[in-house]
Amino acid sequence: MTVKEIVETLNLKIVSGQESLDMEVTSGYTSDLLSDVIANSKEGNLWITRQTHQNIVAVAKLKDLAGIIIVNSREPDEDTLRKAEEEKVSILCSEEMAFEVSGRLYALIR
Amino acid sequence: MLRQFKADLHVHTCLSPCTDLDMSPKRILAAAVKKKIDILGICDHNSSENSLAIMNAAKGMDIRVIPGMEVTSQEEVHVIALFGDVANALKLQEHVYSRLPGENDEEAFGMQVIVNEKEEVLGFNEKLLVGATTIPLDDILRLIHGFDGVSIASHIDREAFSILGQLGFIPENLELDALEISPRISFAEAEKKYSTQYPITCSSDAHYPDDIGKGFTCFLLKEGTVAEIRKALRDEDGRKVIH
Questions:
Q1: DSSP letter string over B114-127?
Q2: What total of structural domains would you count in chain B?
Q3: Is B164 close to A59, i.e. CB distance below 8 A?
Q4: β-strands B217-221, B3-11: how paired?
Q5: How far is B86 from chain A (nearest CA, A)?
Q6: B175 at the A interface (CB within 8 A)?
Q7: Could you give the CA distance from residue B193 to residue B171 in angstroms, rounded to a whole number?
Q8: How far is CA A5 from each of CA A9, A35, A90, B64, rounded to the nearest angstrom?
Q9: For B47, which DSSP code?
Q10: Best residue in B137, B166, B172, B173 to probe A by mutation, most A CBs within 10 Å?
Q11: Residue B243 has pLDDT above 90, yes or no
């Protein structure tokens, strides 16, 4: 399943990385500790977090993640958005909390 | 003349909900004297309300007390702020309080006791000091420098609430003066592991009297002030961090 299909099903708002929406999503990873995401996420994972700091873009790039879903109606910081556009990293926003987004994503791709 | 100062720049008091109630001004100072600490930084979670009590209690003693705070950023990164005077610490506190949601629950987190130098209880802080502010890390560091303070990222060797744990790596262009390690790791190990442009300090992060001075940093300074520590962290005018 691609990021784009998930965006439509989960009703996510695309805020950056329009050009990367065709990436294939392997699974999801939910965590707010970036060190944990670096250690344990896998290539192609869609990362669910409430962190909005610019380091999330670097971590997504480093781990070749399919994209980032920011939950709880939070918006990425300005420099995060700028970096995400530069690096072509898809950031998607949801009004729902991490538990709900994770559950719905799990149901979709498992 | 420059001389060596032994500093423990990160010590909590009975104001922090997670500390022992024994962390009163006299007990803290007695423990610091026993460990031969010359400079003591008072850094409660998101508050500096007990700094003045410890400073007053130390009057006439051969120990320099620095008012400070351990601020929790929006990203849940802990940062030590140290100031030359209480007025600046309280200015930061004003910003922190205005963006620190929630109320303390003593049953769940513990008491937040405000004391004076005679160890009389002045009251209980009702804010959720153990919580996170809604201030981004970069802004907290700018605020600290704006009030002429020194900023140090707390316990970078721990996963919880550290800049490396929360943010994975240290972002560029931060107004950060140093990185703090806990006594669980040596300076040599830290320098090897983190190979960083920032100077490294070690502090105890004491929550109990016996822990005070377990972590410390030796500085070469003229006197035990924040201005001198800043110079040492920048390696200026012969002032140095000598570990």
A1: EE-TT--EEEE--B
A2: 1
A3: no
A4: antiparallel
A5: 31
A6: no
A7: 17
A8: 6, 29, 13, 62
A9: B
A10: B166
A11: no
Beta bridge partner(s), residue B178: B152
Q: Which residue has tokens 């300074």?
A: B221
ipTM, two decimals: 0.83
Residues of chain B with Cβ-Cβ distance to A77 below 8 Å are 136
Write the pLDDT tens digit of every residue in B40-54: 999 999 999 999 999
Q: Give B196's Cβ-side CA count (13 Å radius).
A: 24
**Given CB atoms, is A37 within the 8 Å cutoff of chain B?**
yes
CATH number assigned to the domain comprising residue B230 = 3.20.20.140
Spatial separation of the C-alpha atoms in residues B82 and B42, rounded to whole Å: 8
- Residue A77 and residue B137: Cβ atoms within 8 Å? no
Residues B31-42 pLDDT 10s: 999 999 999 999
- Between the alpha carbon of residue B173 and those of residues A26, A33, A87, B99, the distances in Å are 34, 21, 19, 24
- Domain positions in chain A are 3-109
Q: In chain A, what is the greatest distance between 2 CA atoms, to the nearest angstrom?
A: 34
Domain residue limits at B148 = 3-241
Contact A34 B166 (CB under 8 A): yes
Residues B74 and B132 sit within 8 Å (Cβ to Cβ): yes
CATH number belonging to domain A3-109: 3.40.1390.20
Closest Cβ opposite residue B168 in set A38, A52, A77: A38
CA distances from B216 to B39, B64, B158, B182, B241 (A): 10, 14, 17, 9, 11
